[in-house]
Amino acid sequence: MSRPERWTTAVLDVEAPGGLAVVQGDQGFLLDANGVMFPRGWLAGQDLPVQSEHGIGYFEGEPVYLLVLERSVAVEGCAWQGLRQFMLEGDFAVFQMLGYAAQVSTWAREHRFCGACGRATVQIRGERAMFCEHDNLRLYPRISPSMIVLVTRGDEILLARSPRFVTGMYSALAGFVEPGESAEDCVHREVMEEVQVRIKNLKYRGSQCWPFPHSMMLGFHAEYESGEIVPQAEEIEDARWFHVDDLPPLPANRSIARYLIEAYLAERSGAPEPVLPG
Length: 278
Known about the structure:
Helix content is 21%, strand content 35%. Strands 1, 2, 3, 4, 5, 6 and 7 form a seven-stranded mixed beta sheet that branches. Strands 11, 12, 13, 14, 15 and 16 form a six-stranded mixed beta sheet that branches. It has five helices and 16 strands. By secondary structure, the chain is of the alpha+beta class.
């Protein structure tokens, strides 16, 4: 796990001089041979189509700002890269920073105007909120709670794949929590909806921020109780029991889905439990 002090969120004053900045457009984040963080002063001279700017925190003690662009543009010596690629390849602390930046960017784009009256909103200084003066309404970044659960049956684990997954990859079952529903109720409902299986002995294992675009994944482990697998039409392309010694391609190493799977494998083999990335 990355040291907590490498990346710390904070609401920084965009009027302050200096610092570093990350840039997000519709193709992802801007990067060059030195990485994804640029001197803020250098970016000011690049004639970028900046929609908004936000102070997002400190990386290894340096203030970091986010420039949200109206569109991606060509910048000499630079390229664009999606957030998932940073998760797969890069420094996890950098991914944490960019994941937060991506969520701030989504919030900023979606709350430029008040949803009640349609008037333009303004950023509140010193607070991560947009404000509509007409309705006296504060609009904060949204977090959508969701659950992910690994269902097991002795040496077998239940994995499924969505049509949206990379070819061949299987993962644990997941879904969003509905209004008025507990996370535990959500787990039971989603498992029944997606594969028609009943579960028991549900245990919470941990959580992970999932910035695609703004979820909080609550991870669970459950044991199989009864039922035959029937994949949900249009949602589940395939679902089956896999023996722990014969698994398909799995989700990314830093994902909570992979953690749940590897934690169970460690439990069965007596190996040390893996660490869930923060």
